[in-house]
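Listing S7. Sequence submitted for prediction.
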Amino acid sequence: MDRLHWLTFVPYAEARYVRVTITAMNGGADARASIWSLDLLGADRKNFGLGKPVSASSWRNEIFRADKAMDGRGPDYRSPVAEGLIGRSIVATGHTYADMYMAYKSSQYYRLYLFTGDAHYLHVALLLQHNVNRLTDWDGTKGYSHPGLIEEGAGVAEFVYRPIDVWLTWCTVAQLEPLSELEDRFGTYSIDRIEELPLQQRIDQNRFRNF
């Protein structure tokens, strides 16, 4: 790539796909030298990529053309996320959008643990019950419209957290359904509290089918 000039934004190209993710270091104070340096230049020859994670695309020029390169430092910039990303799940391959879908599965993983005795499933169940739900605005401090809401998801590539700032109905269903299942079966929704019960009692209640 050294000294190579790419003409990426070619009009009328039938097929083109180039993806480059880079944190530019040119002109920075960091003593380390980068092997490659990408200059993302606009019409005024300004380098949009200087010292920033940048994203630009010729796939949809009207949104992501070079002079609208996203540097992740706009009003929605929230990196790093205090609650972390552990427990979030990638929605599909080919992109980096992650949501809180796996909150649905804490009850199933806990029951799988009791069926198999494999402590790995207990660890996953606890992770899903605790970590994913940390994203909820329990006390109204996250600035959502109402306490108790949870954000559906965000893009998490290029060292930047890009939230959608949207709550969807299924998000709360995903939180409440496994809690309801656990409470109906074991008498409490808290896996930590359930773990205080005798093991054989938990195994027996887990196998009871009238739920």
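Caption to Listing S7: primary sequence and predicted structure tokens for the chain studied. The two ends are 61 Å apart (CA to CA). The first strand starts at residue 89 and ends at 90.
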